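Long-time lurker. I teach an intro course on protein structure, and each term I like to show students one example going from raw sequence to a predicted 3D structure in token notation. This year I'd like something fresh instead of my usual example. Would anyone be willing to generate the tokens for the chain below so I can use it in lecture? Attribution to the forum is fine with me.
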Amino acid sequence: MQDEPRPEEILEAVARYLRETVAPSTSGHISFNVRVCANALEMSRRQLLDSHAEIERARLVALLGVDGDLATLNAELSRRIAAGETTLETPGLVAHLWAATLAKLAVDQPTYWGYRAALAARDDLDPPPPSGGGGPRSGGGG
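-- Reply from a regular --
Happy to contribute to a lecture. Here you go:
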């Protein structure tokens, strides 16, 4: 087991160095790529801190009535939707799809205005994971 610093702290420090030290001292395409790399590190850090995978797996087990790992359960849900066995009228499906989508946005685009608006409009969702920094389109509408 690794002591201090923790992996998410290392990712945060490297991203901050790239954004605050390297990016300002470069220009053009290199500066853009440095910012993309910093955003990728920040997204990876948020994924390390994300606790939604187990919550999503538990929702899928309840929804599908079978057990399995997250990838297997998502594949089964996709198969059932494609076969018409599970529809928007299936109890719990819409809530699951909303929660899964918002959990993914919490990692990928935590500053996306649509994500923030959806969180503000809903009070039945799991709280978002710790954020910090933005995704590749941080602060934008995209």
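Some talking points for your students: The radius of gyration is 18 Å. The chain is about 65% helix and 0% strand.
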